Amino acid sequence: MIFTRQETQFGRARTKAVRHLTVAAVDPGDLPTNRDIRSHLQALDWAGRDERERLLRLSAAETASGTSTAAGGDTVDRFHAYKLLLLPLEHVMQPPEEHPEGDVLYHSLQVFELARQRLPYDEELLTAALLHDVGKAIDRRDHVAGGLDALDGFVSPRTAWLIEHHAEGLLWGEQGAIGARTRRRLEASENFDELMLLAECDRQGRAIGVQTCDASEAIDYLRRLSEECGETEV
After folding, report:
1. 0.90 exceeded by pTM
2. Which of 73, 78, 176, 177 could form a disulfide with 171 if both were Cys (CB 3.0 to 4.6 A apart)?
3. Among candidates 146, 137, 135, 112, which has minimal Cα distance to 220?
4. H-run or E-run covering 68
5. Do both 39 and 87 map to the same domain?
């Protein structure tokens, strides 16, 4: 399946509503704009983040496949957890001057595709590429901390490290953007090269109209890698 953001789901839904309500003598101008709908969805998303996190773990536990163990000891399907964290990102829009591609899910899928082209068998890197921005649907003030908290017990320490430092990786080439101590610490990591690759994919994954897989296909790819490697991610 090919996945693009040229037409959003709420955009299609609004078009159908206009057609239906016009027949019922309702002025289409009275309907909310796409911007109004998007803003309302985002407001609902932020307001319900605590409940969503609760449902995330509950739903994952209820649909457990027995392939992973969360920090609390519950057996969960981590890939189901990934999907629950990814899907709300479709309704989180980003500043167009930095992210002309639009919503966070589309960006994340672009980053995943770019990383897969470079290191198709590095499950931990690809997981970080797909999930690096899940916190943007949880905590707008600190999306890295919010994402890591939600992913606790669902990703490996290496994946968590890549997500934790991906913002610093983006700033790496900017003079004075990060301190000398941080620079030395990152360079000393055995995962430094993959962090730089993730940052490169993050910068490039902001194109308009490019084709990507959808979230389910990306997760299925990670699941197959995990099965081939003997479940080494967590």
Report:
1. no
2. 177
3. 112
4. strand 68-69
5. no
